Amino acid sequence: xxxxHQTAVIEAGAQIADDVAIGPYCVVGxxxxxxxxxxxxxxxxxxxHTTIGDGCHIFPFASIGLRPQDLKYAGEPSQLIIGDGNxxxxxxxxxxxxxxGGLITRVGDGGLFMVGAHVAHDCHVGxxxxxxxxxxxxxxxxxxxxxxxxxxxxxxxxVRIGAHAMIGGMSGVENDVIPYGLVTGERAFLSGxxxxxxxxxxxxxxxxxxxxxxxxxxFAEEGTMAERIAGVAEMVPGNEAVMDVVNFIQTDxxxxxxxxxxxxxxx
Length: 267
Hints:
The protein has helices spanning 195-200, 205-218, 225-235, 240-250; strands spanning 3-4, 9-10, 15-16, 21-22, 27-28, 32-34, 39-40, 45-46, 49-52, 57-58, 63-64, 79-82, 87-88, 93-94, 104-107, 112-113, 118-119, 124-125, 130-131, 136-137, 142-143, 148-149, 154-155, 160-161, 166-167, 172-173, 181-184, 189-193.
């Protein structure tokens, strides 16, 4: 049975599954869809054209689906689509898309968005992503599955964060981060591979060794990036993890690829 507190405000038109729980003083807009088993604690605001999947848990003072923080936004009917099983903690903000970014902000399944995290307009966030306290991503950012953003980190608009990457706390990320990469620093630089994350995700020893070798060649000082990446593709043909890195670097992007500091190329 749906459990809606008497002080909650549910606008006409909202689509709410039978077993949703909505706590005190929540506000749910008329173009919102809440999936089965989703729970809103007190003082949550969900507005706009927002769809939230099954089994999500949203904590007090989160603001989900309200107008994006983009001066070019002109009221177009853009969407925020959130998948299943996400935990969205206190004061998290997630904004819908804009006409300039395809009109959709999309969040995958099984994510953890800690206190004060911000997902801006037109972002595409993968599955099982963790954004720690006050981590923020600007508009049009793409984040791969299982990436982790440390507390107080900030990602520049249009940046891509590869799958299984780790962003250190308090890092400012201005450039694309390769899959499985580890970046740190006030102006983030690539400091190796996310070896701890790879082991936690139970990547094989062979895959980790292949990624180490690929990393050393890709970020060596000799030759151009294009030449080195071609060499990486030939080094371990058919290795899926290595090809994730190759394909990521070869994909067109408006941002450069985050590089190691001079003399810190080893994975």
